[in-house]
Amino acid sequence: MSLAPPERAPDTATGAAAPAGRGPVKHTGRTRPDRRRLLTRDSVPYLLIMPAVLGFAVFKAYPIVASLWISLTTGNGDDRHFTGLDNYQRLLNDPLFWTALKNTALILVVQVPLMLGLALLLALGLNSTKVWLRPLWRLGVFVPSLTGLVAAGVMFSVILNRDAGLLNWVLSLFGIDRVNWLGSPFWARVGVVLVITWHYTGYNAVMYLAGLQGIPNELYEAAMVDGAGPIRRFVSITLPQLRPILLLTVVLSTIGTLQLFDEPYVLTGGGPDNATLTVTMYLYNNGFKYFDFGYASALAYALALIVSVLGIVQVRLMGERR
Amino acid sequence: MKRRGPLLTLLLAGAFGLCVGPFYWLAIAATQDDKDVFSWPPKLLPGGHLMDNLHGLQESIGLTRVLLNTVLVAGVQTIGAVVVSVLAGYAFAKFEFRGRNLFFVLLLSTLVLPDTVMLIPIFEMMMKLGLIDSYQSVILPGLVTPFGIFLMRQALRSMPDELLDAARVDGAGELRVLWRIVIPVNRPVIAALALFVFLGGWNQFVWPLIALRSPEMYTLPVATATLQGLATTNYAQVLLAAAIAAIPVMALFLVLQRQFISGLLAGATKE
Fold first, then answer.
1. Cα distance between residue A266 and residue B107, in whole Å
2. Do the chains contact at B239 and A158, CB–CB below 8 Å?
3. pLDDT confidence tier of residue A120, bands split at 50, 70 and 90
4. Shortest Cα distance, chain B CAs vs residue A186, angstroms
5. Which of A210, B97, B120, B233 is the most buried (most CB within 10 A)?
6. Least confident piece of the model among A139-148, A173-182, B249-258, B261-270
């Protein structure tokens, strides 16, 4: 009954004498005098995780299973009956589902690389010791990610206004004609991408910055001695060292973008002409506008499947060499 | 090489402007008359209509009640989620028990599943319990946060066992060890977690949108979104609501930013 998880034992036991040194002080719950207490060491961990287990069972495990079951039925409440894979069949033949999936995929493919690329550049800049007022810039770029999606969405629905929006005004200063953000299918997608990029780039940059600061300086010094230029150092040291954080941000951004709901809901309502309808939005419409829970659950599971497959592919591709 | 400093600084200042500029404009717009929000060129100096807009919001969405709802929901959720996360994180980090690894993996795997998968069964559950349109319906599902448990486990793992054992040898019970040693030592991470959960609770939208029915139960994001959906939207008021949603959180962050960023990154960079 060691209290330490097994994988911790080696790093506390440094030096040859350590295992023997730990021996005499080691004691088990059973031999200790506090047996009369309710909280013995044997029961403590179970009591500690009880709230988490209860909450997990009710609000995670049950809904995940129930959702799968509901996706195999039609009708609501007591009027629900099993229809097998009908909902999934309908989904495959539903042009709106494919539109929503296409929109989501398009936003994903454009937005995630754009955002993470910008975040990496920002992080490199913020990491440079030659820059003045670094803490201020770091603070500023993080601020958008604190804003709620609704507040950001509302704010940008006016900033992107065609006739009097701030963005078109700034563009007009450079002699660029007014853009019909949110009003035309193409620009509405661009608008949504812009808003999400604005919202999360700084957050990712701060994550990368932490990663950059964890890279030992000796690696760069050694590379400089070997005559490696800045690009070579970036490719051979920075990128490989950042790999775990890069992977994390890629996976998290993918999950987030595939679940995109709030921004298009507030900015465009899915329009114009369904150009910004996302899978989660379509799910919401089916579930909570038309109360078709079966079909909405099938959509949820389809989405979960896509997210998991993409996640596994990304981990395989990026996590392979370590 | 020497010239890179000023140039980089200028570029970063530009990025800063892009990030923070919209908030400046938001604060300005919230003090304008509705017509002036859409004036060309846009107004870049404060107007005198802040109080009018506040009164307008009080009438249209019941601002004080909506704010109180939001504070209550986010506050209770924060306390609950932090308690659950600290307890479970401590168990996962410092105890060995049957099913530990299995449960931990199960918990983490739900991070990958979209929350939307859970919406409908939770909605039906709340309907059956008669909890739709109540505070409980919004608060309860947010109490178990896999991220919070993960973060606490990461943080508590790096506590030396000797510290805990010393207290036990002195006769402290497990609750006492937790309360007197584990929590004080890890106060920064716990504060960061609290801030993070509070932010999530303050800003959450989809679930409250579904779970709440009557306007006097709405939280600020839900009220803001419904306000914007109206045919005769007063945009100065909507923007003021957005500003009220955004600005307190930013102020809180500015006060606690050091703890917040390092606490959040604890989960990302360790291991």
1. 31
2. yes
3. very high
4. 23
5. B120
6. B261-270
Q: Give A114's contacts in chain B (Cβ within 8 Å).
A: none
Cα A200 from Cα A107, distance rounded (Å):
14
Q: Does residue A18 surpass a pLDDT of 50?
A: no
Q: Is the dihedral of CA A116, A121, A122, A127 positive or negative?
A: positive
- Structure confidence at residue A27 (pLDDT): 44
CB A257 within 8 A of CB A115: no
Asked if B246's CB is within 8 angstroms of A148's CB, the reply is: yes
Partner residue opposite B225 with nearest CB, options A130, A266, A304 = A266
Rg (CA), chain B: 23
Q: Are residues B40 and A157, on separate chains, in Cβ contact within 8 Å? A: no
Residues A94 and A90: their CA atoms lie apart, in Å, by 6
Tokens of A269: 């309502």
Q: Which of A77, A148, A169 sits opposite B221 (nearest CB)?
A: A148
pLDDT band at B92, cuts 50/70/90?
Answer: very high
**Other C-beta atoms within 10 Å of A117: how many?**
12
Given an 8 Å threshold on Cβ–Cβ distance, is B91 in contact with A48? yes
Give A 21-50 residues with CB within 8 A of chain B. 25, 32, 34, 37, 39, 41, 44-46, 48-49
**For residue B227, what is the nearest residue in chain A, using CA coordinates?**
A154
Is the CB of residue B84 less than 8 Å from the CB of residue A52?
yes
Residues A278 and A263 sit within 8 Å (Cβ to Cβ) = no
Higher pLDDT, A1 or A217: A217
Q: Does A237 touch chain B (CB under 8 A)?
A: no
| Distance (Å) of CA A206 to CA A263, A274, B140, B159 | 23, 34, 31, 25
What type of residue is B46?
P
Q: Is A51 in CB contact (< 8 Å) with chain B?
A: yes
Please say whether the beta carbons of A87 and A298 come within 8 A. yes
Mark yes or no for CB contact B164/A59 under 8 Å: no
Instruction: Please tell me which of the candidates A153, A158, A287 has its beta carbon nearest to residue B37.
Output: A158
Distance CA B62, CA B64 (A): 6
Q: Which residue is closest to A212 within chain B, CA to CA?
A: B269
Average pLDDT taken over every residue of chain A:
83
- Tens of pLDDT, residue by residue over B198-224, are 989 999 998 999 999 999 999 999 999
* pLDDT score of B37: 78
Give the Cβ contact number of residue A73 at 10 Å: 19
Closest CA to B155 of B253, B252, B268, B255: B268
Tell me the pTM: 0.83
Report CA-CA distances (Å) from B211 to A57, A83, A153, A184. Answer: 20, 28, 21, 33
User: Of A126, A161, A255, which is closest to B38 when you measure between CB atoms?
Assistant: A161
